[in-house]
Design brief:
151 residues, alpha+beta, single chain, 21% strand, Alpha-Beta Plaits
Length: 151
Amino acid sequence: MRKLLSATLLLASIFTFAAAGSAQAPPAPDPNKPYVMEYYYKTHWGHQEEFLELFQKNHYPVLRNEIAQGRILSVRMDTPAYHMPEQERWDYRVTIVFKNAQAAFTPVDEHAIQLQLFPDQATFKREEQRRFEILEAHWDLPISQIALDTK
């Protein structure tokens, strides 16, 4: 829910800047095209593998469920091949391609999906709490595609 609220606020600010005519404003998303969001995760040193394990066990099945429902088209996870300066460091980038911008920003009942997929809710909640405890930072980034061949 926190991610959805952050993403919604970010999208609202993007539309506000676009409406104000800012030269830096990204184009408004095409409602008929897929919409891309990137989610960055920076773990505390030494906890990268634990985070990945918990993500694959508890969050990825929820995302796969949303793929099956048609809300999400694809999910991809990347990690840098080399190290970066500490301030810019991230450990994992999850790229989600939604069916369209509306699908990306329409609330989904993740809790219902979690109840269906994880009957042992005590373990699920404990592991999800741990997944976020080992994060140092997390941010969501809506991606606006810019057409280069328009002239």
